[in-house]
Amino acid sequence: MAGKNRIGLQFDGMEELIKEFEQLGGDxxxxxxxALKQSKKAVTPGIDQAIKKHHLxxxxxKSLDKEIKVEWxxxxxxxxxxxxxxxxxxxxxxxxxxxxxxxxxxxxxxxxYGSKVKKQIAEIQKEVFQKMIARRMGG
Length: 139
Known about the structure:
By secondary structure, the chain is mainly alpha-helical. It is 55% helix and 8% strand.
């Protein structure tokens, strides 16, 4: 697993859109999975680009989780993003947070945790639900 780096469903007005979608008879599980998958597809290339500049052994780059798999724990869905620590991704932590000898790579850090990425994810998720509602309404 990529660890605790996960995308969940979070955007302004989420509860209202979900309620509207359910009232229209929409499949909430597939809508949720679609929103999470689209979110990961949007952020993973930025993470990949940010790690490439380090020219490491290649193990860290290869450990980037590119699998598009939604995991459910009860009624909570999430999708892993980032690096598989046990599969060569450990250096990503030192790069993102820095060490006494290595300066923090803000671009790499922001590609996962940055406010711009969080805003992008929220917009993607909201858009997915709005489009699915529009389809349910025949629009």
